[in-house]
Amino acid sequence: MNDTRAPAANFAARVDACRARIERVLDEVLALPDPGTERLRAAMRYSTLGAGKRLRPILVYLTGESFGAPLDALDAPAAAVELIHVYSLVHDDLPAMDDDDLRRGRPTCHRAFDEGTAVLVGDALQALAFTVLAHQPMAGASAEARLGMIRVLSRAIGTGGMAGGQAMDLEAVGRTLPVAAIENMHRRKTGALIQGSVLLGALAAGVSDPRQLAALGQFGAEIGLAFQIQDDILDVEGDATLLGKTTGADAAHAKPTYPSTAGLDASRARARQLRDAAIAALEPCGSRVGALAELARFVVSRES
Q: How many separate domains does the chain show?
């Protein structure tokens, strides 16, 4: 395979540009003409804007751009996947789930507003995500392409993906799980939406080659698991100031994690192994996807 390593400065600038762009797009999308109440609108904007790594929309942009899509063809899927991600965070933070007080460096939605509003924020953000995919301008996208994107996103967040993984997470509290079960839970709860982000970018760019789509799907699956393992590591040894959330929460809630089961050294080794497998999976896509390979490296080396 050709060397896919992008120059570090160019990659960082590209990621920063993607992050700045999705902030503008989300701000526009959340200018709701009929928010229900101003309190709901304020809570949706509070939860979504101005913070976060924006990994999932960045994946949409980097994948789509790698295959020649213009940025305005990628704004809708990038916004949709981030709205879904934020909805999941708002619901995960609730007392009935993880009962967290801090998210992205400030009080969680249910602390800043109230629990009922937080439930409605999650519901409304999920609905808005599919509205954006169905109706937002998307240069060159056919009705078939939009339907394909809706199919990918709905599959990623259902019982076989994010919701199913969260259910497994709740059932695992206080239990000891084998590594294979933890990987299955992580691949659903976190990995499925990350994989979906890659595929959304590919579909928006008109990628139809089954071999390339399979390669991109495998890439997304591997970095999705690597991302969550690194999150587990950071929950043990990360800096809460950099993370913007409380560390040690998994141990406090008696949740089985990769480090608690396999140990920190094995967790780091597995994350690196997944990174290498993700990069190798990109071979059918050629050298055009250097930015994706660079992102895989970032996922494992990040400290926040």
A: 1
